[in-house]
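not sure who needs this but someone in the group chat was asking about T9SS type A sorting domain-containing protein from Halomarinibacterium sedimenti so here u go. i didnt clean anything up, its just raw.
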Amino acid sequence: MKKIILFFLFVSIKGLAQDPDFFQTWYLYHMLFENSPSIHVGDFDPPISPTLTINPNLEFNGEGACNTFQGTFIYEFEGFEVETSTYTTAVCGEEQDNFEQLYFGFFSIGTPFGIQIEDQGDNIQRLQIHGGTFRDLIYYNTPNLSIEAFNQQNILISPNPASKTLFITSENLQMEQLSVFNLSGQKVMELKEVATEIDVSSLQNGIYFLKITSEEGTAIKKFVKK
């Protein structure tokens, strides 16, 4: 069953500090607007990898298209707000600059916001930040691999952690491509021939993401190499 953790404007700072899920690096997937088209990070070419890292002291930092930003959040009686915020101003390109103007604009000083975190299974979490006037930011705690996910419940990988071989089990799924990415979103392995097992012995110990492409869509599975 999905575990849903809600942080609304009335959440106390004490309660927030007790939940470690909030304090990690999040990868932006979507920006949603009330009266304008949504922005999907996976549509950018060349690709970009916007992030947001939140620390237990409510300091934050992140990346846009080619610039970085940082600042602090505060919690007051009326809710969470951006207390301080600065960012770099290098020229990235017209499309990327327009994106950064919207993305960095969310973190303008005085912006109030609410937060919702959902567990998606396989240690994957979804963060939704609602704030400003018309904006919702959708993050996951996995790098953006331009994924349109389908039902992942029918796909199992084992053992996890794995030291030598990773096995893939699925029901009536015709896999077309298998790729492995590291935490930075870099592809470290791609199978020339699709199989139900992957030799991961050559990978360094750490956390990886298996991208499974099929006619139904693309799924991502998180695994640990030990």
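also The mean pLDDT is 82. if thats useful
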